[in-house]
Model the fold of this input.
Amino acid sequence: MKSADPLSDALHVMAHLVGQEGPRTSEQLATCLPTHPVVIRRLLAQMHKAGLVRSTRGHGGGSQLARDAAQISLHDIYLAVGAPPLVQFGQRDNGGGCPIQQLVNQALQDGAREAQRLLEARLQASTLDQLGADFARHLAHHRSLEGPHES
Done:
């Protein structure tokens, strides 16, 4: 299974590692996404190469954050997955030399560059611990809406 959005997948997996006492296996993380554990292992290999996670083999092994989540920006994760373009769109081929098409393409390219800069700045300003805290608040809110559970 190939993901259409490796950044989203990486952020999702990394958020599941925030606040974990011990390592999580690729099988455990795959149930969260959901995807195949091989996809998770490939993603974790990218995070490991970037120094964002450390892995332990064998019984009781798995992956965990290599440093405090407050020291990992979402931009670090973006770079670890290869810095894919955050804004993508198709352009009509300019081979015909139509001046209108040239202007359309230029407007789209200019907008995409500006959006890319803004998104990267936002990723640089956000940390993994903030994402984890947002998740914890979201989870607590939804659990409070469920009310008490009967045994």
